[in-house]
């Protein structure tokens, strides 16, 4: 979790922070939206369950790795590795909790909006589901990962900075979602691209 300051004084928000990892994580929401649009909510949820399994395996492997001895030729390894990964279980639990809840919420909202709008308003279901579920993700992750480890003002700065970044990504990814869905539908037989709940 590399925290980066972001000066938003011109918006009256002062200096807020965001996590660099959010740039990569932001791609997971349009990915589940695309899978929901093409193959339906069930397959998108299976994608999330696969991610949850990956997190659990990572948590187990990191836990084991922190207990293994370091080689004698690199005395700093224990200190460096411990510094990097002793907080990893809390961060991974926060990530696992936030990711699974927010992604499943995103899929549910996406498919609910699709049920109301049919094939119209892809932009609405893409952005509406993402903005709500990303708010949930932001609050859950940063509260679980950092509450009590930093002042509440700094935590609030992280929440604001990361959610603003996610809003920008949600707006920017909409043309990408349209393009990927059109590309998949063009090259895939229609019988295999029918959304199924």
Quick structural gist:
By secondary structure, the protein is mostly helical.
How many individual β-strands?
2
Compute the separation of the termini in Å. 35 Å
CA-atom Rg in angstroms: 19 Å
Q: What's the helix-strand series? A: EEHHHHHHH
Strand content: 5-15%
What's the tally of helices?
7
Across the major sheet, the strand order is 1-2
Mean pLDDT level: 83
Which descriptor suits the 3D outline? globular
Major sheet size, sense and barrel closure: 2 strands, antiparallel
Structural class: mainly alpha
**Unreliably modeled segments:** none
Helix-residue proportion? over 70%
Word description of this protein:
The structure is a single chain. The chain is mostly helical and about 200 residues long. The protein is about 75% helix and about 5% strand. A two-stranded antiparallel sheet has the order 1-2. A hairpin with a 7-residue loop joins strand 1 and strand 2. Helix 2 (about 30-40) runs parallel beside helix 5 (about 90-115) and helix 3 runs antiparallel to helix 5. The longest helix is centred in the C-terminal third of the chain and has 36 residues, at about 150-185. The model has no long low-confidence stretch (mean pLDDT about 85).
């Amino acid at each position: 979790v590399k925290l980066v300051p972001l000066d938003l004084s011109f918006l009256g928000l002062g200096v807020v922070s965001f996590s660099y990892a959010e740039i990569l994580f932001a791609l997971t929401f349009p990915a589940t939206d695309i899978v929901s649009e093409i193959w339906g909510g069930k397959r998108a949820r299976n994608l999330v369950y696969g991610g949850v399994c990956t997190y659990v395996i990572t948590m187990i492997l990191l836990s084991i790795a922190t207990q293994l001895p370091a080689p004698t030729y690199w005395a700093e390894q224990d200190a460096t590795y411990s510094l990097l990964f002793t907080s990893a279980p809390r961060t991974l639990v926060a990530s696992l909790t936030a990711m699974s809840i927010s992604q499943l919420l995103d899929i549910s909202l996406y498919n609910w909006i699709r049920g109301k709008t049919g094939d119209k308003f892809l932009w609405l279901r893409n952005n509406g589901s993402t903005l709500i579920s990303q708010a949930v993700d932001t609050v859950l992750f940063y509260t679980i990962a950092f509450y009590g480890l930093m002042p509440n003002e700094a935590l609030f700065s992280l929440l604001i900075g990361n959610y603003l970044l996610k809003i920008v990504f949600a707006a920017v990814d909409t043309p990408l979602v349209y393009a990927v869905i059109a590309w998949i539908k063009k090259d895939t037989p229609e019988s295999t691209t029918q959304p199924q709940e």
